[in-house]
Amino acid sequence: MIKICVIGLGYVGLPVALSLSGKFNIIGFDTNKKRIENLKKNHDSNGEFSKKDFLKKKINFTFKRGEIKDCNFYIICLPTPVDKKKIPNLNPLMSSLKILAKKIKKKDIIVLESTVYPGLTKIFSDKLSKLSGLQNNFDFFTCYSPERINPGDKSKKLSRIDKIFATNSSNKDILKKIRSVYKLISKNIIFSKYIPEAETAKAIENTQRDLNIALFNELLILSDKMKLNFNEVIRLASTKWNFIKFKPGLVGGHCLPVDPYYLSHIASKKNYKMEVALAGRSVNNSMKKYVIKKFNTFVDNKLTMKNKSILVVGLSYKYGVSDLRNSLNLEIFNEIKKRFPKTKFYDPFVSKNKEFKTNFLDSLELVIFLSEGKMFKKLFMKIKNKKNVNILDPFKYYEHI
Ligand SMILES: NC(=O)c1ccc[n+]([C@@H]2O[C@H](COP(=O)([O-])OP(=O)(O)OC[C@H]3O[C@@H](n4cnc5c(N)ncnc54)[C@H](O)[C@@H]3O)[C@@H](O)[C@H]2O)c1
């Protein structure tokens, strides 16, 4: 009988655990005690799942290593951030080795879902072999299945996201077990025998997106300097069959600002300096300065700021999520608040205030839009004709409405 342990119950691990429960016996392990206490009460503080999503799900949530018993299928969904020098911080991932080394037995399956650099799954399984005295691909089986979940995007449910699954094993019994588990996670699994290729594929997906957004951010800056209508430039260019349209904006979170560094890190170990992969990073990071400069110019030229306040719209790194990690929006809000302490924010995914009273809107002198989404558009529609409320839309999300 398959008994699964999901290690790390964040944006990735919780949906994985929820998809599998019901059919399999599941232990959900996370070192964050508060997170476990909340999950036991069917509360997801990340705001991705409501209480009813936990109904009929049986997961044994725990922060105690001792409670991980009799498992034979481990799914690792631990964070893979970078440190201050942008070097991969593998501590969370490597700390799971200590747990696994004591628990794994013959025929156990271990799947890494965390984003890693090419070659890291092998480093991981070599270390596990050494610590456990068991042999990878003979006694236990380490696989790699990168996660592509898009938090905040309800249109892309986990089961509808095509999933890569890489394993070196051709053991029929092991492949059968993998299929029986992973078919509950995704309707379409793309198998590969090449783990480093799967690791690279994941890292380049996010690197490509980071670069594309950076190009659009650069075009936005150029349009601004040349007083061009940015949206018209893009509308015209989009009429060409092979032009790919992206949106400019603030880039944050746990993936895009991190994954290009995982790639460049391993490249530098091979004495190769990646130029293009990292080229988007500085432009995307510079958008914070761009917005603050626009804000300061606007305030200095246009506002009276007499007892009136500023509202910053969009605090998390993107619309629809509560995740404040690497959020340039939050950094911008904090800068503005330093200058104007009465500044407030609106982000219903971060805090609970969802509706505005008319007198609150009337008391505003400036609303600055940092993200794009349905509820923010609704707010824009409410204020766009209010004479006394100024609007700053640095990424031109709403100007055409
Ligand atoms: N968030 C996303 O949108 C997303 C999408 C695709 C891939 N990924 C990748 O998936 C991985 C996980 O990301 P995430 O966003 O779910 O991270 P997260 O921070 O939301 O969740 C990680 C969880 O692991 C727990 N944890 C940390 N150290 C631990 C340890 N030693 N033992 C047990 N639990 C521990 C944390 O408490 C946290 O709850 C990362 O590699 C990330 O790059 C994330």
> What CATH architecture label of the largest domain applies?
3-Layer(aba) Sandwich
CATH class of the largest domain equals Alpha Beta
Number of helices: 12
**Quick one: biggest sheet?**
6 strands, parallel
Helical content stands at 25-40%
The shape, in one word, is globular
Strand content: 5-15%
Q: List SSEs in N-to-C order.
A: EHEHEEHEHEEHEHHHHEHEHEHE
Per DSSP E runs of 2 or more residues, the count of β-strands stands at 12
Ends distance:
57 Å
The radius of gyration is: 24 Å
Bound molecules: nicotinamide-adenine-dinucleotide
Description of the molecule:
With 401 residues, this protein is of the alpha/beta class. The chain has 3 domains: 191 residues, 3-Layer(aba) Sandwich (Rossmann fold); 78 residues, N-(1-d-carboxylethyl)-l-norvaline Dehydrogenase, domain 2, CATH 1.10.1040; 103 residues, NAD(P)-binding Rossmann-like Domain (Rossmann fold), CATH 3.40.50.720. 39% of the residues lie in helices and 13% in strands. It is built from 12 helices and 12 strands. Strand 1, helix 1 and strand 2 form a beta-alpha-beta unit. It is globular, with a radius of gyration of 24 Å. The model has no long low-confidence stretch (mean pLDDT 94). Bound molecules: nicotinamide-adenine-dinucleotide. Nicotinamide-adenine-dinucleotide (NAD) binds next to helix 3.
